[in-house]
Amino acid sequence: MASANITNDxxxxxxxxxxxxxxxxxxxxxxxxxxxxxxxxxAVLCTVRIVDPIAFTxxxxxxxxxxxxxxxxxxxxxxxxYSGLVVGHIACNGVTTILIDKPGEHLCYISVVFHLSxx
Length: 119
Known about the structure:
elongated; 119 residues; 57% helix; mainly alpha; 5 helices
């Protein structure tokens, strides 16, 4: 077996750098650029979050009139009870959809259908 004659005049120990020192600029880690905030997308999300409660509160004046038009009861004092049931089911529906946020969760859809059918 022939052994290769390698003449090595460099002393390799724990103080020797592993990379060649000729490319020092490449060894210095560059500071990553900060990513800018998506201001347009955040503005759209904030607008939707503001409009949703406003749309929910705009429902209240019309629920009593709708319950009266459905003729659910002959006693006008019970219309508020049925209106409360409808608004309560809508609120429960909103909470259910917030709590169950896993994609493909069938319980969320079943709950939505239940609250809409009862309401």
